[in-house]
Design goal:
Layout (H helix, E strand, L loop, with lengths): L5 H28 L15 H26 L2 H6 L4 H19 L1
Helix pairs in contact: 2-4
Amino acid sequence: MTGYGGADLFLWGILPYVVLVIVVGGLIWRFRYDRFGWTTRSSELYESRLLRIGSPLFHFGLLVVIVGHVIGLLVPEAWTRALGVSDTLYHVTALSLGLVAGVCTL
């Protein structure tokens, strides 16, 4: 039986929860102290040509990344096998869509 090493424990066992706490805490703080700063007008979306392109691209990429992870975690392997999807096809599709979504998010 193999155990977690120090770096693995931190990266996969601790860091995701630290990030989740920071995100939730930041959302609560921002809602409480900057409630009206959540509008698209505050992001100067229409004042910059690059933001007009980059903001929707970032949000689309982020949405695809999140949905991809949720689907990857919640869809059982038996379902993909029942549809005739091989492991290779599943991984190639996930990696190619993930790469496009990651580049959009970046």
